[in-house]
Write a structure and sequence with these properties.
The protein is mainly alpha-helical. It contains two helices and no strands. The longest helix is centred in the middle third of the chain and has 23 residues, at about 10-30.
Length: about 55
């Protein structure tokens, strides 16, 4: 790996992408409204779903 020129930049880019993803996820979790989270949590249990089940 040491023979590849410029290889040292890829781990830094990966770390930056990883950090940005979790920073944005952290921000979204703390700014999401409780109503939205409750609505998304109840979606699988919604009895008024007009779609046909797959099975």
């Amino acid at each position: 790996m040491e023979s590849i020129e410029g290889i040292q930049v890829y781990p830094m880019i990966s770390l930056l992408i990883f950090f940005l993803f979790f920073a944005l996820l952290f921000w979204w979790v703390f700014t999401a409204t409780k109503d939205h989270i409750q609505e998304m949590g109840e979606l699988p249990l919604d009895k008024n779903d007009n779609q046909n089940p797959i099975l």
